[in-house]
Write a structure and sequence with these properties.
Low-confidence stretches: 1-11, 170-197, 446-488
Shape: elongated
Largest sheet: 12 strands, mixed
Number of strands: 39
Helix content: 25-40%
Distance between the termini: 60 Å
Strand order of the largest sheet: 2-5-9-13-17-21-25-29-33-37-39-38
């Protein structure tokens, strides 16, 4: 632990500059010789110019003695000054040593006090009583507020508490569900073996633990949120680690998260990251969102990983900015999902993604390569007015309902190789600037379908399903233009 800044210590006195005694000695000897020579010259001149022979020696000796007395006085003064300097130096060294000892004692006392506060708070959050655990969380919050050096430690301890297993739903049975509803509890997915005879006290303990965990989440939300009015409440940190945590109604809107690890976490209730900033890597691999997941207007400054994530309810990613790569490999969207006006400046990977409900990528902008290899769209999929500036790949993708690519702009090559369009396909006013590949692509043609013009479709063969047409050759007749499609 780094030494903490002491408080209540008076300012150290400014030390005096050391006196240059060696230089003073040299100057003193030189001055003595100069004065001696001057006095000798004065005596000699006085002896030559005096008319009285009896007075010459006396005047010369008197002048010489006067000069010597001055020299001796100067030497005595130097000695006195040297003694005074030595005394001041010794006194200052003693004072400095005393100040250093006092400062060290205060630092030790402060460190000891902080350690005691941390131990007490840690013991409190490990207590069996919910009120004691609440007090421990408040003590940790107070400790981080007073000592900025410990804020990362406090955040890590709160995250560690949230990572602890929460067995609230393990006591749910059909007989006790009315009791839970009476207490206003949320029904969770069972974790671990169910108890045979749950009691009302067990439900009370679980509900109290739920309140403690929500308090921990609110502390994180308050300390990670940057507000102009209360900027002092924001805690600078290096990372937050909620790997495998159970989070209920988590709200980190308007928060700034440097590096967030949520791998394997379970988000129950509504999860909100509206207008949040992920300044570092965001890891949501293997997460489960049981309620609505709201990421609207979120900014990801580094890679964002949602591999194998499961969104049970709706997922909102409107106006999200992915500054680097966005990886949704194998993600499952069971409810309505929207990526409208999303901005992907890096690779956008949706390989093997599964969309069970309608999904919208309307007016999305992809600056780098975008891949939907093997993606399954079980309901309507809309890419209306989306812009693909680099290669777009939809090989082996499956569109079971309406596939809307109207007014889409493909600046580079696009591939629908072996894609399957079971519903209507809309390609009106779509721009293919560098050509496209739709070989072995299956279209079910009906009145609402608008296939590309100037394409030759083969007749139905014996190994294709009845009512399906296969494109055997594509001859696009689209002008080379860099203009973007106009928006309505």
């Amino acid at each position: 632990m780094r030494p903490l800044k002491s408080r209540g210590i008076r300012k150290e006195p400014t030390p005096l500059a050391p006196f240059p005694w060696r230089l003073a000695s040299i100057l003193g000897v030189a001055s003595f010789l100069i004065l001696f020579l001057i006095s000798a010259a004065v005596v000699i001149l006085a002896m030559r110019r005096s008319s009285s022979e009896s007075m010459v020696p006396i005047e010369g000796i008197r002048t010489f003695l006067t000069v010597m007395a001055g020299i001796v006085g100067f030497g005595v003064l130097l000695v006195a000054l040297r003694r005074q300097q030595h005394h001041e130096t010794t006194s200052f060294a003693q004072i400095e040593q005393q100040e250093r000892a006092l400062r060290q004692r205060e630092l030790d006392d402060e460190q000891r006090r902080i350690i005691e506060l941390r131990i007490r708070a840690t013991e409190q959050i490990g207590s069996e009583k919910a009120a004691v655990r609440i007090g421990g969380l408040h003590n940790l919050d107070h400790l981080g507020e007073n000592y900025p050096e410990l804020r990362q430690v406090v955040i890590s301890e709160i995250c560690a508490y949230l990572r602890m297993p929460f067995h609230y739903s393990s006591i749910l049975t059909q007989d006790t569900i009315p009791v839970v509803r009476e207490l206003g509890a949320r029904q969770f997915e069972p974790i671990g073996p169910a108890r045979e005879n749950p009691s009302k006290e067990s439900f009370q303990d679980a509900l109290q633990e739920q309140q403690v965990r929500k308090l921990a989440q609110s502390i994180l939300s308050r300390r990670l949120r940057r507000n102009l009015d209360t900027s002092s409440s924001y805690w600078d940190h290096a990372y937050i680690d909620l790997m495998g945590a159970y989070l209920d109604d988590l709200d980190l809107s308007d928060c700034c998260i440097n590096n967030g690890n949520f791998e394997g976490a379970i988000f129950d209730g509504e999860t909100r990251f509206v207008n949040a900033d992920f300044c570092g890597e965001a890891n949501f691999n293997d997460t489960t969102f049981k309620g609505r997941a709201d990421f609207r207007a979120t900014y990801f400054a580094s890679d964002a990983f949602f591999n194998r994530s499961k969104f049970v309810a709706s997922a909102a990613f409107q106006k999200v900015t992915f500054a680097v790569n966005s990886i949704f490999r194998g993600a499952k969207f069971m409810g309505n999902s929207s990526f409208g006006r999303v901005r992907c400046y890096g690779y956008a990977i949706f390989r093997g993604a599964y969309f069970h409900a309608p999904v919208s990528f309307s007016q999305a902008l992809f600056f780098e390569r975008c891949r939907f290899d093997g993606a399954q769209f079980k309901d309507d999929a809309s890419f209306r007015e989306a812009v693909f500036r680099r290669f777009a790949r939809f090989p082996a993708a499956s569109f079971s309902a309406t596939a809307d690519f109207a007014r889409v702009y493909f600046r580079r090559f696009v591939s629908f190789h072996m894609a399957r369009f079971s519903g209507s396909t809309r390609l009106s006013e779509a721009v293919f600037n560098r050509g496209f590949q739709i070989s072995k692509c299956l279209f079910r043609l009906d009145d609402s379908s608008t296939p590309p013009k100037d394409h030759i479709f083969s007749p139905v063969t014996d190994y294709w399903e009845p009512g399906w047409n296969r494109v055997i050759r594509a001859v696009p007749n689209i002008p080379e233009t860099e203009s973007l499609p106009s928006s309505k």
